[in-house]
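Inputs:
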Amino acid sequence: MYQSELWQPTATLPTLKKRAEIFHQIRTFFYERDVLEVDTPCLSLGSISDPHIEVLTSQTRTLGQDVTYYLQTSPEYAMKRLLAAGAQSIYQLGKVFRAEEIGRRHGIEFTMLEWYRLDFDHWQLMNEIDDLLTLLTGAEVNSERLSYRRAFVRYLNVDPFTASLECLQQLSFDYTEYGLQETDRDTLLELLFATVIEPNIGTDEPCFIHSYPVTQAALARQQQEPDGHMSAARFELYWQGMELANGYYELTDPDEQAQRMAAEMAERAASGRAYRQKDERLISALEQGLPRCAGVALGVDRLLMLLLNHKHIDQVVPFGGAHA
Amino acid sequence: MASYSTSELRSGNKVMVDGDPCAVLDNEHVKPGKGQAFNRIKLRNLKSGRVWERTFKSGESLEAADVMDTDMEYLYTDGEFYHFMLTDGSFEQHGADENAVGDTVKWLKEQETYVVTLYNGAPLAVTPPNFIELEVTETDPGLKGDTANGGSKPATLSTGAIVRVPLFINIGEVLRIDTRTGEYVSRATGK
């Protein structure tokens, strides 16, 4: 991929100036709210269990020993270890890495803003995200709040919690010609969401999708809906065709966290994905006690694309793609 | 047999889908926030010409189609097959049927070079050059002096194709035609 002639930046200098101004505004926003900036390591000896995120690794030798470091895909584990050790609300603005396809909206390395608010639930955190977007856009932002269930009813006329597998298979096939053999409900739901719902939400004001199926909880706690069914206290923010942020009312129960981690590790092994050092230090931290909190990770490069009206992620970073 | 991973497919790759050879036109990566990644692939079925989109799980593999584009000279038709010869000096000949020749039949001229797509060694499709020079065999008499922009009239060419030409064109003239649009470009300068 290396080409010696690609020495020039992929972003213009005015864009880089704007990028710096937005970093400054973000830091001021949190400083004024008494949220502490932290910078946890990019290189960690343990990694995440998520079955669908691939991680970059780095090899070195130290004290006569071969050592593998994993590049962080998000500072989530490390920040929760800080919270369990007694830190107050914290934020981090820094680089994260994923071993995934590079494209218009994906870089192998990108800038993430992640923050945790003590004594917040996910509803309060959504309000704070609106405040931040209001500051950065210079105009009042009132994002739509739409539950995962209502989004499916609105755009596909189906209840994702109660629809039969056959119904989801047929719907998925109708829209994508994929799905008749797929037996995993979440895969079908995710495909339908990405294909049919995503292009229709957040087209004007941003849109929070919330209350996910418990099988898509990731690191969110479970909650009971007014009608009795359980959902995950997780939300995602969509705006103009882009997924901008993912947040949770955080799971604090170490036993449930350990179970989810084990299940994900098993899923990775079953699908033949690379082994990664499990990071039980997160579970130890939860045993020590993670305070009640909500947290969110927001893709800053994508937000810059929207704010500055750029179509490709490379246009908002100094050296994107093959220029890196 | 070679195969491609759906996440690595790019425009121009030829793959087998539902038993038919297809050309990849576009490959869009679809990654939900969490969860399985997909590739939405735009394909052209090389047999039917149909263009459509299919979604695959990322990392799934598709068999490569044994499809090859070759330059061949058109020789003659025996009424059933259209015979072509490789221009690589091998003199190897292939007979293409009506389906393979398709719409290109109206641009078939002896000794002209065409791109013949071979699938498992047999002609699957015949693509004409972008521009071709053909003689007018039938048209209304030319109007003297009318060389400026004006109307147009139909003209039948030596291959049987009918194109709109300017009023000043006469029978026996050789015209340059854009085969992609079927439109008259100019009088041929060569002959």
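Residues 12 and 24 of chain B are 5 Å apart (CA to CA). Flag for discussion at group meeting.
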